[in-house]
Amino acid sequence: MGITNINSVKKMEEITKEKSNSNLIKIIKGSVIAIVLSLIFLTIYAAILSFTSVSETTMVPVVLVLTGISILIGSSMSSISIKRQGIINGGLVGLIYVLFLYVVSSIAGIGFGLNMNAIIMLIVGVITGMIGGVIGVNIK
Q: Smallest Cα–Cα separation from 74: which of 138, 130, 139, 122?
């Protein structure tokens, strides 16, 4: 292998590393977007619960739907800029979201334990992230 080939390989490795770092930042941005949207949506829902006669029994399904919509939007937005591997990148956005939720809940002492609701939240987060990733990659 000549010197020019070695330099070309090194340059390709540097470009790949830069793209990986850039993609990770975009995935984290998508997760932050999803978290902020969830905060907005859940604040609106909390106001509706407080000031209307909407039953508290609607909390679990509404929280799951609002979380799913937030992750869908966040993963779509991150995958629009990445333009490839939407399923993986979107799934990572959903996973980061759920892990962040777990860490914050644990610190706050809310007790986000590993129960059926947590497993459902994890599944909803990853699957909606994957769907959003596929949507984002295919938006032109």
A: 130
